[in-house]
Amino acid sequence: MPALAEIAQYLDDCLRITEIQDYPNAVNGVQVDSDENITRIAAAVDARERTIRDAVAAGANLLLVHHGLFWGGVRPLRGPALRRVDALITGRLALYSAHLPLDAHPTLGNNVLLARELGLTPTSGFARHHAIDIGVGGESNTPTAEVIARVTTFAHRCGGSVRHTSCEKNRVTRRWAICTGAGASQETLAEAALRNVDTLIVGEGPHWTAVDAEELGIVLIYAGHYATETLGVQALAADVSAKFGIPWSFVHAPTGL
Whole-prediction pTM value? Predict the structure, then answer.
């Protein structure tokens, strides 16, 4: 069985961890080290107490996540923060986190995989961030109601729900874009308008983005932050499993958002 350092190097190279700029609190890469050989992998969207304990219960000694331990910034090890760290250490569970590098990956990324789930074919990037396209976009000739129905089916399967801005009955999606997670922002709406995107699929966004989207003529579909980011960690775990011959499992812990 491989050491964590070998797997981490493979992941760092595959995801271009050092090349893709991210938010400071993402802390991409190994967040909790281990000197043990890795015998089983678990994947989860969030490094939370529930997923950590479920990963340990499943016999994993490496947990791959999209959102790591440090999203709340520097804080004392008390309460939930302490319980998470304690569960990792006592469970002898290593932790590897990949945020924007996983969102942006051309084959394992949340955005390209969500497009595939929805029957959409990406032909361009979207959601530019420090010279890297995090999301994807493309063209279509699909009734927007059908796009919404596909998104709804996917989200329900992941334990989530869907909201969207107003949509005319016979409206057709000609140009679409996807930015998973907290994908509705001033920047993504401006880019969508510039690129003549008429249907934008995101995980979530502030209330005002619904107002702006409608006035820009964009149908904005909020598919759920959690739901839209379940695909990448599973694909990543499956890839590592195939590469190193290690079994893996997914820890499903919906947040309802």
Answer: 0.96
